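ugh ok so i messed up the first submission bc i forgot one of the chains. this is the corrected input, ALL of the components this time, i swear. 360 residues overall. if the numbers dont match what u have on ur side tell me asap before i send this to the collaborators (the ones from the other lab, u know who)
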Amino acid sequence: MSKFNKGEKRGMPELNTSSLPDLVFSILFFFMCVTHMREDTPIVKVNTPRADQVTKLENKSLVTTVLIGKPRDTRRGSEDLIQFNDDFLDMKNVQATMEAARESMKEADRPKMQISMKIDRNCKMGIVTELKQELRKAQCLKISYAAKK
Amino acid sequence: MAKKKRKAPAINSSSSADLAFTLLIFFLVVTSMDTDEGLARLLPRWVPEDQIQDQEIKKRNILNVMVNKDNAILVGDDYVEGSIEQQNEQIRKKAIEFITATGQFGGERGPEMKEVDPEKSPELQKLIVAKDPAVRVARSHVISLQSDYGTSYEKYIQLQNELVAAYNTLRQEAAQKYFQKDYDEEVLSQDEAKALKDLYPMNISEANAKY
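and heres the new structure output, hopefully the right one now
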């Protein structure tokens, strides 16, 4: 009887999903650009200490990461070891390895090379200090102690 | 008799959304958004042992911060005790007093406060000294952080962090006082940030661990 209801039951109009793939693709591209795959799987256990004055490392391509912690593989003992690029690094090879790492960078970037030291909170300072000495010998003077907020 | 040109049938693209979703989820899982954070430091240049020269630094310009293998902390002449929060507060307070030569480090016992050198830090001269000519800078002060081979790394970072916090607190105060802004590189102009850094230059020396 009502003027407006034409009697015929109107269904909900179907939502046009033809632009959905475009939408999803744009999000996909965003994540593809942002992603950088983790290159090295940690073979030492690292739980970085807390600090509230941390600063962000500016440019990822300038950063070389060194890890120190107890090895995950218990057969390697329970002494703190250094990890660099998927493998353990002996203290006496640090200098040569760091110099090689710098050689592999672009020439313009070499002076800006930065070492991020991810060190487990239960480490002793002995190994850290030795590493710092070796880094000084290799002329890698910009370092950063990785820490969580 | 020309045949009507047959149109190629449209490809059904309804599944491309599913395809994209699958890829999207893969990248979502793989992505690590976390940017590395840390306390940035500059190590001193390596000098071969036969060329080491003892740098003359006046005793009053050095604040010794030591932490031994039992993680006991000594700042200046006093032990720092208590809970971690209490320790942090004391370290920060002492560092601030030292850098500004106030409190127990006032006068002759604190570092030398020098006038600003307009050639070395023109930004500081222009932006701060022009407003407040009484500004003095503890240019040659050094905070010497010494650790032991047995010191735990966590303790060491706690100290490093508190010392950086002392500088940041001072710079924040100065930023509020002179520029009415927060000490944040994104808020301040380059010159202002440089001026604040010159006003409270960060000199933390990481001496070699002792055996």
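quick check: The beta strands of chain B are 37-42, 62-67, 73-75, 78-80, 142-147, 204-206. that seems consistent at least. The mean pLDDT of chain B is 83.
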